[in-house]
Amino acid sequence: MNRDEFFGILHELAEKTRQELESSFTESNVLAIRQLVKEFLVDCELPNEFTASSFADIVTTLRENERAWSRKLGEIIIIVEDKMRVGDKTEAIDTLGRYVDQCPWLSLREIAKIEQENFRRD
Description:
The protein is mostly helical. The protein has 6 helices and no strands. The longest helix is centred in the middle third of the chain and has 34 residues, at 52-85. The protein is elongated.
């Protein structure tokens, strides 16, 4: 599976009601979430064993966390654009660098790095 497929599974699962999510506690979904965490998150460990309830909690927490970091990236890009407008290019680039250092989601880090490089060229 590729990145989009893993995130598609996470997003699809996270849209379910709690009961539907617990009913989605299957070996293939657990494996997909484990692989997503392994490949696309930094410093995140999952428990060795899952229950339907803990699976639902983990999926919900992962999606909420991803959403929060995505929202934060959008806010930072606006801040960086404002800093660039007033000529504070170094601080703008450093702001994105701090996000890259702190964000646990590798795909969001990659977006921030691309933005950082774009701002370096401006």
